[in-house]
Amino acid sequence: xxxxxxxxxxxxxxxxxxxxxxxxxxxxxxxxxxxxxxxxxxxxxxxxxxxxxxxxxxxxxxxxxxxxxxxxxxxxxxxxxxxxxxxxxxxxxxxxxxxxxxxxxxxxxxxxxxxxxxxxxxxxxxxxxxxxxxxxxxxxxxxxxxxxxxxxxxxxxxxxxxxxxxxxxxxxxxxxxxxxxxxxxxxxxxxxxxxxxxxxxxxxxxxxxxxxxxxxxxxxxxxxxxxxxxxxxxxxxxxxxxxxxxxxxxxxxxxxxxxxxxxxxxxxxxxxxxxxxxxxxxxxxxxxxxxxxxxxxxxxxxxxxxxxxxxxxxxxxxxxxxxxxxxxxxxxxxxxxxxxxxxxxxxxxxxxxxxxxxxxxxxxxxxxxxxxxxxxxxxxxxxxxxxxxxxxxxxxxxxxxxxxxxxxxxxxxxxxxxxxxxxxxxxxxx
Length: 430
Description:
43% of the residues lie in helices and 21% in strands. It has helices spanning 16-28, 41-55, 72-79, 92-106, 117-134, 147-160, 189-200, 204-212, 247-262, 278-294, 298-306, 308-311, 323-328, 370-389, 402-406, 411-416; strands spanning 6-11, 34-38, 64-66, 82-87, 109-112, 137-139, 162-175, 231-233, 238-242, 268-275, 329-341, 359-368, 398-400, 423-429. The chain has a seven-stranded parallel beta sheet, sandwiched between helices. A seven-stranded mixed beta sheet has the order 8-9-10-7-11-12-14. Helix 3 (72-79) crosses helix 4 (92-106).
């Protein structure tokens, strides 16, 4: 790789997630040579000015590159200018593959914040072999979707002192104590758009997975069964629903990889999201039902995309959340793991236990500003980890989920260093 390449280029830097990634880059990428890229030079200059003022740092000398997803030659030129592309330009269903393709062809690593399983698993199916041949890592889901869940399971396993059978996660988010709940939307339009198209095409996943994984994993016992549609979780004292995001599919990809590579027993996982009351959970079910129905036909999708505020109950908007709203928002993800103590470890990862699990562990991953603070820090931290610790990553390259890529690295320690990072802690070990 050419010595005159920059370390990092942030692509899509003038977008909502992109500009906050530029802000966090000032601290996370300190000491590295980085630049930004996008379609419009004026907007990119404006982002450097705005985020430079916010960070109290002159960013006027940060290199700018013009690259457009509709111009593949420009993407190749951009990819050849750096060691890793940090891609913030979604929805990845429409814009992601061309960037991945340019990076793999250029021998350039690629990370993004996609929470779109169809995109992620298609990229693995199409580019994993070539990425290995080129020595390139392509890692998606490097933001709030799904670093807390995927690396949280790794944190559980490292601290369990035994063999983990299953993990349940309980996500909570809200406004920190002492603050008003008033404010702008919590999601920007790009995130909403990705969700609309992701659900609309959810039936594609079965076909993708049959091609990606022609052989099914063996069944491990006891099987972790999903809880009821609505239930009160004593673990977090919240009324919970199944979590509709990509966490479970990302964790399952990582666990399958670790089983196939290391013959490690795969952790079973179910993901839930908690609400303060039965009424709040009922309202969410109502909106989710409307969203699910409307996403299945063209007119419905048009209405969802035209009126995001109405159909999300104010959660999403074209303008996105205000900085004040983002900075007041916290998240907590609690993990309940069960398994067997080290003294009961079996000879092979594929062996079955005859006794029920007798050991448990509770851990938590938490932070502030999950959508655009913790997400951007996590994304940049994964890029930094690839640059610094690729010798601790598997197979010299490939298209991987985060835990598959980073389980042997110091990514968790890196995440804990930053103001908008994440805290990993043990709550109870029995």
